[in-house]
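$ ./design --mode recover --in tokens.txt
reading tokens...
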């Protein structure tokens, strides 16, 4: 169920219009809707039965930048590494999706971390195998990270002036330079954390909930590597992270140092986003993480 949307610009109005939007999609597509799933933040997501008796999932997203290209990306991937898009409404924020069952997350799966990491990386490789359409309307990565570089530069003296200047300046530079020096461009998932990789019947694992862009593949790896089992809790996380980035490089065909550099830059950006919402503790933890990732990248 959509949560926290009311605090966003236009969110309250969207929540008020949501029942009408659901009725319109239900009636227009001939659906029977079940109770929404728990855990959503910017969308209504729930089970649906189609007119021919099939099972599906209806997703109605709050219109925002990150969700704008979801339908286009799912259509391009056509089930290769991701759930299938069955249909979408004209604005792309109302989606009828393939049901993903049993639907347990990679984050909650039993197994050795590097085996689970391998499974996730293999899904990512599938997503990247589909070449982006030159006429795609998906947002270019450099436009997004360029905005982020400006936000970090603005927030640093205001919210965390004591942060390591070398680390912050390096991250700002990477957010601006990495997207423009990529050797290849792919359709990025954009939020490839292990909670967005679900067990399925037609494939061991499928990705859901993309926030797609087009650009340097190295952008996508950070949340998968860092969120599988919280490696920062280890006494010496550096060697473990270098081993994981080496595995990612082997499977994905991207330089380990570049994957680490992207991860360091994203951790700094995320830290300042945390500071911006008043979560000092989480921001400091992500800056600590960024320092370890920067060391792994030799920055």
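writing sequence...
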């Amino acid at each position: 169920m959509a949560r926290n949307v009311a605090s966003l610009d236009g969110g309250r109005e969207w929540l008020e219009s949501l029942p009408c939007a659901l009725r319109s999609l239900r009636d227009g597509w001939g659906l029977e809707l079940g109770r929404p799933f728990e855990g959503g933040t910017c969308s209504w997501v729930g089970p649906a039965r189609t007119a021919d008796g099939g099972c599906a999932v209806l997703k109605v997203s709050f219109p925002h930048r990150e969700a704008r290209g979801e339908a286009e990306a799912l259509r391009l991937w056509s089930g290769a590494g991701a759930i299938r898009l069955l249909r979408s409404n004209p604005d792309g924020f109302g989606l009828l999706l393939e049901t993903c069952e049993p639907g347990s997350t990679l984050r909650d799966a039993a197994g050795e971390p590097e085996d689970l990491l391998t499974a996730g990386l293999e899904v990512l490789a599938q997503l990247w195998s589909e070449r982006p359409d030159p006429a795609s309307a998906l947002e270019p990565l450099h436009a997004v990270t360029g905005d982020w570089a400006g936000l970090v530069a603005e927030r640093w003296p205001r919210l965390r002036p004591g942060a390591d200047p070398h680390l912050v300046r390096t991250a700002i530079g990477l957010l601006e330079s990495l997207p423009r020096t990529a050797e290849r461009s792919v359709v990025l998932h954009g939020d490839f954390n292990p909670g967005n990789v679900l067990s399925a019947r037609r494939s061991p694992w499928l990705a859901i909930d993309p926030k797609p862009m087009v650009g340097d593949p190295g952008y996508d790896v950070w949340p998968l590597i860092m969120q599988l089992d919280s490696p920062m809790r280890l006494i010496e996380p550096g060697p473990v992270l270098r081993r994981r980035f080496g595995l990612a490089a082997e499977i994905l065909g991207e330089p380990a140092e570049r994957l680490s550099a992207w991860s360091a830059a994203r951790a700094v950006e995320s830290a300042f986003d945390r500071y911006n919402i008043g979560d000092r503790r989480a921001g400091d933890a992500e800056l600590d993480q960024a320092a370890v990732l920067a060391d792994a990248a030799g920055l």
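exit 0
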